[in-house]
Design a protein that fits this description.
The protein is about 20% helix and about 45% strand. The protein is α+β, with helices and mostly antiparallel strands and about 140 residues long. The protein has one domain. The chain has a five-stranded antiparallel β-sheet, with no helix packed on it. Strands 7-10-9-8-11 form a five-stranded antiparallel β-sheet.
């Protein structure tokens, strides 16, 4: 019985360590030259910081400290066969409106996707043309 309790404790520690390995390590920082939306909140232009707020990387903290704007956003993750060469923030642009849609981290094969906001869904429904804007970031 003592061995079973000990094995359970070790298993929980290993599993929590595996979950942490799947999240963004450190924080992603980029100088964003435009206001953008995440969910239903606008983040002003300036230095943007994104970091994992949960062990599994599914909750991301997005903030602009200078503007005192921050929010928590749920993310989903996909994996590719190839590791990212750079750390980047990926935005969907509709006219002059930008929406943060994904984050890639250098050396990782994971992409963190943010859900489509209501405003972005409305623009898509109106068939407003979209372009993808990639912004180089750094991992600190």
């Amino acid at each position: 019985m003592k061995n079973a309790k000990w094995m359970l404790a070790v298993s929980l520690i290993v599993l929590s360590g595996m979950a942490v390995a799947q999240s963004i390590r450190g924080h992603v920082t980029a100088q964003v030259p435009f206001d953008f939306m995440v969910g239903n909140k606008t983040i002003p232009a300036g230095e943007c910081v994104v970091q994992s707020s949960s062990p599994d990387g599914r909750v991301l903290l997005v903030r602009n400290l200078e503007a005192k704007a921050s929010l928590l956003a749920m993310s989903s993750q996909t994996e590719s066969n190839k590791e990212s060469a750079d750390t980047v923030l990926i935005f969907e642009r509709y006219g002059d409106r930008y929406f943060l849609s994904a984050i890639r981290v250098e050396g990782s094969n994971r992409t963190y996707h943010l859900p489509q906001s209501k405003a972005e869904a409305e623009l898509r429904a109106q068939n407003v043309p979209a372009t993808e804007q990639t912004l180089l970031a750094s991992l600190k």
